[in-house]
Write a structure and sequence with these properties.
The complex is a heterotrimer of chains A (about 200), B (about 290) and C (about 625). Chain A contains 6 helices and no strands. Chain A is elongated and about 65 Å long. Chain C has about 625 residues and is an all-alpha fold. Chain C has 21 helices and 2 strands. The chains are: A mainly alpha (about 200), B alpha+beta (about 290), C mainly alpha (about 625).
Amino acid sequence: MAHRTGTLDVLPADEIRLDARVVSAGVWLFLTADLFYFAAWWFAFFYLRALNNNQAWIMQGLTRPNRAYGLVVLLLAIATAVIFVGITAGTPRTMLARTLGPAALILGAAACLFQGYAMWHLGFGLTEGGYPSVFSGLTGSWLIQLLFAVGWLTTVAAQAGPAGDTVIRPESAAAFGRILLFLAGVGVINYLLLYLVA
Amino acid sequence: MKTIRIHEADRPHALRLLTIWLVLSIVGVIVALQIHIPPGDQSIQGADQSRTMTLMTALATPIFIGVVLMIVYSAFAFRNRGPELVDGPPMLGNTPIQIAWITGSTILVLFLALVGITSLASSNVAQAVGAPGRSIGQSGGQTGSGTAGGSGSELQIQVIGQQWYFTYRYQDYGGVETTHLYLPNDRPVELHVTSLDVVHSFWAYQLGVKADANLGVDNVIHVTPQKLGSFQVRCAELCGLWHGAMADSSGKVVSQSDFDSWIQQQQQSFTDIQKAVPSYAPFYFPDPLTKGS
Amino acid sequence: MVTANLMSERRMLIPNNPITGLLLAIPGYFFGVWLGNVFGLFDDQNTGVILGYTVATAAFLVGMGFLNYPLTRLLGWPVTPISESEPDAGLSRYFRLSLDHKVIGLQYLFTILIMLLLGGIGAMMIRSSLLVPDSSITPPGQYIALIGLHSVMMIFITSAVIVGPFGNYLVPLMIGARRMAFPRLEALSFWLVPPAAVILAVAAFWGGFPTGWTGYPPLSEQAGQGMDSYIVGFGLIALALVVSGVNMLATIITLRAPGMTWTRLPIFVWGIFTTSILGMLAAPVLTAAIVMLAMDRSVQTSFFLSSNGGSNYLWENLFWFFGHPEVYIFILPAFGIVMEIVPHFARKPLWGYRTGVVGLFGVALLSWFVWQHHLFVSGIAPVLRPFYTLSTELISIPTGIIFLVVLGTMWRARIWFSVPMLFCMGFLVNFLIGGISGVYLSDVPTDVTLHGSYFSMAHFHYTIMGGEIFGLMAAVYYWLPKMTGRMMSETIGKLHFWWMFVAFNSTFFPLFIIGLLNMPRRVAQYNPALQGLNIWVSVSAFFLFGSMVLFAGNLVYALAFSGRRALANPWHARSLEWQVPTPVPAHNFDRVPVITGGPYDYGMPNARPVADFGGIRGVTSGA
């Protein structure tokens, strides 16, 4: 069993400040790494599209994924990020986090669900050429990362209580908002590529 | 401008090192120039590679000797011989020496790159690797009778890799497919390398030719044989179970007349199976690969 | 101050240790297989096997206790800050999820040495097979399985063999920090390695995989289930590289002690810094490629199948875009080790410190622009070749700088010939040969003959084994007294060095000639005319293995039997890590030290002590 010690003593201010720096640096570094991950997929998109081997980038008669549906998912993800960044930037944090945190969470979860549903009903088979491959891989990667992000968002919301981690170390919680923003931005690029450029 | 001033204490060491280095380097370069580095001179391209490698070896020898000499010399001359640990002179760096070192290595590197790039761009050797050739189908070659001396007409040959052998199709001879590679002497050849399954690499060792065979890709490589004789063909890219056995030592560079009679023979035996063979194309897509079986 | 400690986090659900991890991993595997068969689109087993390995790894990590922290947060329980965590004690901490960077360093060291032994046995089996030119000793299927397992195992090892043990252990000590930035991620980066190694070894039961470490499709798509081990194992290692890179960089950037300015940073830390940048940015590209390969093999997409809108060049480009920085991930920390160790034994300041740092960054930067030299003969656009020839050859300039710095440090020094110093000098000679042979491979016309031959194989063994592993040996001999409180025998160490140096060169130098004489890599059958040279190489390789056995004996004897405790600073070195007591106290420094001098100020008349250990209470970082 865990010790449930009730209220945590407040950490020394210096410790909190240091922690904020560490987490902030870590998030920036992680995002740079993640950018390379998605860049590899974008490279794959343009490379296979340009090669169009055996005329099989987009085979004839391929059902394109629904643009409006993709847009809904994207807007949900953007809303999640914007609301989260909004509440972690504003004060008083506790109150807002308690009211708006669940809202961000619900939006994020909805984005995941909608995207998951879309992945289940692609309208084309994965074997049908280059575009279906890139679509499923890129969207799938994005979805999995969004799932993890929403999972972490849940813990941030759960720690929004009076002695919770979100309140004790607000800057660390706020740094997480950058990951949500990043994923939303990747979502925009993915949308442009997969639904409009392709 | 600072000039390199040699410290009083450095002088004997520097002088000694320089002398030993000069002597060893001269000997080393002379030895290096004697070494015959493969692939040899069976083709223009191969001869160029041998020459370049000799040049590199001759250039690398003084560098190698210099650095190893420094290490060995330091080991003997700058060893602490007493029982006590003694700190050395606190030298933090020497900007002129650093600049000289970096400039020297830059010049050397740029020179080597220049040698590589010019030979890549020069008219004959350029064609060793993947210079774009005529596209297949627009055969401009004179069927059967190339002119010696490498002027004009290139013989077009398709190299097809599959697990675990190479076959060859002579486009200028009705797409006849053979199991061995015969090349007429002194005539430029344009090899179109492709694969029917996994990645192979066509390596005709004595000719100094290597090109990957990819499914759905027409990889062009040029070679001009200049000496009669046989050569080895080997696969140089791991291609599965019998990759090691994917070798054939019966490639031949023959005279034009021998080549003509050989290809006629091949055409005769080919007529029997011609119907079963797909017509000549830049590359072929066989039935889809079964993945992960 | 904070009453909750990490023990509470650890024991929340179940006892967390490798046995629990294993007990969860086995059903996890079968669950994954079942899941794969439910969702699998085709009647092959790959979806199941890939999911099986993935779920098993996740279950293992849960069993180790990695879920406890997220769960604690999720339940709204108080979260313990790392800085206040209770230190672990006892031998069992080495088998648990520990957040102490010193424990993780040693966990890494011994795990990787065991993996090195496995990879080395693989190499011996390969060399045994090559005693004869036909495949009568090892059938060709087993032979290519062997080279696949040897190569990937060694790549796993060499990716982490210096950053893992020495980076984790020493970076906080060297920069005056009491911890790493993200200890949980640090632990994760370690605990991903054993599952990766096990999953890779499991491939042997599927008959291995036929592609070597490069995994070129379509061969890797045609291959059997052994290939799935490659996919998941490599994926885990890539993840570990990212995690460890982020952690190292964040630590070095944010946790330097007051006074530890960028120009006072030990050069080894710079080596870790640059290698972490490469690891963090290159590995995600590999991950993307691995995901594509996994999808091609499981759900039948066609990223790499040109008959269906894909291209195998996509893999080759992504793989080598990762793969070439990857080889500098191997060597940069070794550069760091050599430049770090030499000043302490030359008893002189590092000659041209700033130039050396520029050299490290130059190598790191240029390594991004050279990857297509692996594709010179593959049939990619010929117009790109001159550029890649030039960029590849340009890397010799920053590499030359590293040599200059070391040679300058040894100039007019008072060299103390200890074992670490010997290994550093061996490194220089070996890496020089490796580097020069690299120039032959960077030039397109000569690369046409050398590509894919034993020449290139000899080249990268010279750089990796002759370079990185010699650097590793120097590091083990040098830092073992600090890390374990035991000192290895100098006499046996010197014998080990000379034996290893001679056997290494005797093994790998003839391979340049074998490569020039028409022997491709990865072949079970070769030209009988080359049998004599191959026998020479094989016998030398057995001797080389013997030198490693001697090393293992020296290590085990020092740790378990010698009983002699090492001094806190047996090398009389100036740098910070040697100023703390041995064994290193729980949080490294009672108070964060204030750095007052450089680590290499030997012989300087006005040199200040390296640090003031009185520190400033409450100050945990600076610079």
